[in-house]
Amino acid sequence: MINYERLERILQHELRSGCGNRAVINGLESFVLVWREQSLAQSTGDDERARVGAIAAGLDGYAALEVPQREESLRRVLSMLADGGPVARAPTAASQPPQTPRPAAPPAAASARPVPPPRRERAPARAAPVANLSVPVTAVRGVAAANAVKLAKLGIATVDDLLNYYPRRHVDYSALKTIDHLVFGEDVTVIGTVTEVKTFETRRGLRITDVTISDDTGAFIARYFQAPYLRQRLRPGHLISVSGRVGEHLGRIVMSAPEWELVQPDMLRSGKIIAHYRLTEGVYPRTFREIIRHAVDTFAGTAADHLPMGMRQRARLLDLPTTLRQIHAPESMQMLEKARRRLAFDEFLLIQMNVLRQRKQWQSQPALPLPGDEHALDPFIGGLPFPLTGAQQRVIDEIRRDMGQPIPMSRLLQGDVGAGKTVVAAAAAQVALHNGRQVAIMAPTEILADQHFRTFTRLFGGAVAIRLLTGSQSKKEKDAVKAEIANGAAQIVVGTHALIQDGVDFKALSLVVVDEQHRFGVEQRATLRQKGFNPHMLVMTATPIPRTLSLTLYGDLDLSVLDELPPGRQPIVTSVRAPSERERTYAFIAGQVRQGRQAFVICPLVEESDKLESKAAVAEHKRLESDVFPTLKLGLLHGRMKGSEKDDVMRGFLNREYDILVSTSVVEVGIDVPNASVMLIEGANRFGLSQLHQFRGRVGRGPHASYCVLLADSETEQSLQRLAIMEQTQDGFRLAEEDLKMRGPGEFFGTRQSGIPDLHVAQLTDVRVLEDARQEAQSLFARDPELQAPEHELLARRLAQRLRASGDLS
Description:
The protein is 40% helix and 16% strand. It is an alpha/beta fold. The protein starts with a helix and ends with a helix. It has 27 helices and 21 strands.
């Protein structure tokens, strides 16, 4: 039986002694920690464990408090002991009646007020007191110092971190499918026994490991790429849980790179919904689930809810304690979905609050208005060698109106490949030049910066002083450009990250253009802004972004969309081909090269590893060079190369030093190689539609007929069906929407692109939740933008915590 009486005596003694933390040797906190561990071991139910945890948590950080705060903590915990009903006492004998509580002794110190005896009548039920969840994770039962070191690798340092470390998936062990009931194209979890593990190498040097899994009804193959270590981890006889999408190859059921986990027999017997977590070496699933259970039992009920009750009611959301219990140990799939919805709402709300905060911060600063009526651009537009599209004219008008205002423009220009974003940016630059101001254009790579420099020089001719600033220039060249920037002689400056370095000082910067905006963080954009007096900013992206994604990623920016291609733009003939048609495709590429054209060959995404992708690209380059195109010149581009090396290769390809460029997915967006007419994408089924569309946009940029060949390494009906959409349309926005539906947000840009919000639970397909969160954020921001109202204190703290974690304190 839990000895509450001893704890009560110690706390009363500490209070009477003036809260000097001398009631017990080593201080009150160490005593409470020992009492808590003993009491949890003696607890007989969840309610009792929760009460013990709440009582102990009420004295967290006691030694660091001032005397008045210590006294307040002691009285609060003594009140908790009294309000919980009759305090359990250590029995003296079975026949002995309960003892009458003794009155408190008179105070020993003049400063200590008398403590009334605890009430023994049962108090009305009330919510569990709020605990301090920022205590070390070692406060959770079962977490010793050695375990804490391992958990730190997962980013778990406190109890709060642990409770907010959400499962990556859940498996309902009461509703599992057998292998004979699997349906192609569905996402499922299957339990089976490993019967065979074998590894083999393909002609292109890829190592494939096939794990055969069976149950009483049939068998299927789990296929992994570049993962030979699985032969040691998975042995025949192992019972495993496999989660992935059901596919087919040569008539057999195949799951490509599914998630797996060894299954304990008790998991099957439980018939429960079991959470599965991403773990690190030395942290085992069963142990981690036990730690989570203790944390939830002890602390979840005391978690303070940062969402105001009115907001929860309007959005039909669970409270936070219930959410934490249901996400880690759901009672049903319905309760799991409610918990997931609450956490998704939280994530979207915090993102939107930050977006609104950034927008207010930027627009609260005055900007220099750059007026220009609709005729101010007539000379520039009239001098273009082509007419503007209606979309270009509409967007130029939007930008011109923004730049004429005394608040800084913050606009995102979104346009499909070849939609003419550069000309729009040049028109914006002309508005700044018309007002005697400078323009900075920042690109993510030197070759893109060089391309913009040449384009702007062509558009403006010799009438405007345009300068280029990049990291590879000599010190003498850089110093000369910096001097012209400082004295105002350089009117338009095109560059890379070199533009935001110390020593680059503009005389009159009023417009900043950032290309491929997702490649730069908020901090880099802000640094470039600081080079002038709150300059107007135009950020551009060639990646078509669905509306839901735009609201989440770029809600701080006004949106302009170029949804019309210039007339005369070459359509790119796209075809999907099976592996058996590879030789025919090689012959087609060779024929194009004989006609004087060039070709890209993109290697498949092996997995999220630059090292493995690069290895695959090197092997493919070697094979193509020696076995397939021995008489042609082949270049190689991959993620392990230095930036300067990549630039050299791309420049060589642009200058026709190579006939074929073999590349991983790092091939730059926006690069113009007018002579390239063929884009071959190996393993096309492993890329998202949006990424395939970006690759396709590397060709068709010159006067020649152009082609994109999607070579699948799987002939499943589903993968070929998905790729067929590429044959049907060249509308990047439609492909983006399809991509978001089919592959989810994590793979929309490719998981390593910057700018994607840090979503643990939410999915960008949760349109209704996103809209609800956005509406609540806007309403809240209008009423209390600084979150200073008492009811918003916890939300303000949670937002600050998120910003610290993401490094976004701008």
